[in-house]
Amino acid sequence: RQGALEDLRFATEHLLREGGVVLPARVVVRGMCVQSAQLRGENRVQPGAQGQGLDVQLLDTFSLNSLMSIDLPTLDHAQLSAPADVAVFDLAALKPSHSAGVDVAAVADGHVDGIVFWFRLEVCEGITLETLPAFRQGHATEIRDTDAHP
């Protein structure tokens, strides 16, 4: 949610007792590129689609990049890149990371149909929870239409 760091800063300054800690201490947004005909089919006009006798596939030019929740283990997909840290939020210091970009290492050839995001919560020293692969639901995927939006 937008403004979450500002809300946390306010709570830390006005509600947290001296010596108290913020949990989780860090949140890392992780991501990887995937190829999936299933994802592509949910955001594109299907080949050969007709609307009142007109070929409507040109409407793909106007398709939107969107964010949707998926259950990755049930999605028919191929992993195209190694997981990478996309953003880091140091909640203990109340600072977001600032990066000019993210280096992504390709592990397979293919067409990027989506970028899967998940979270790693670093609760405290030595305790980490990650929503992939431990949890089956709640992964967000950005649909990337690289044909219509290079």
Explain what this protein looks like in three dimensions.
The chain is mainly beta. Helix content is 12%, strand content 33%. It contains 2 helices and 10 strands. The strands form 2 sheets. Strands 1, 4, 5, 6, 7, 8, 9 and 10 form an 8-stranded antiparallel beta sheet that branches. The radius of gyration is 19 Å and the shape is elongated. Residues 134-138 and 142-150 have low confidence and may be disordered.
Q: Helical content, roughly?
A: 10-25%
**Rough outline:** elongated
Rg, Å, rounded: 19 Å
Largest sheet: 8 strands, antiparallel
Q: Structural class of the helices, strands and pairings?
A: mainly beta
The mean pLDDT is 76
> What is the count of DSSP helices, taking H or I runs of 4+ residues?
2
Tags for this model:
12% helix; two-stranded antiparallel ribbon; 150 residues; mainly beta; disordered C terminus; single chain; eight-stranded antiparallel β-sheet
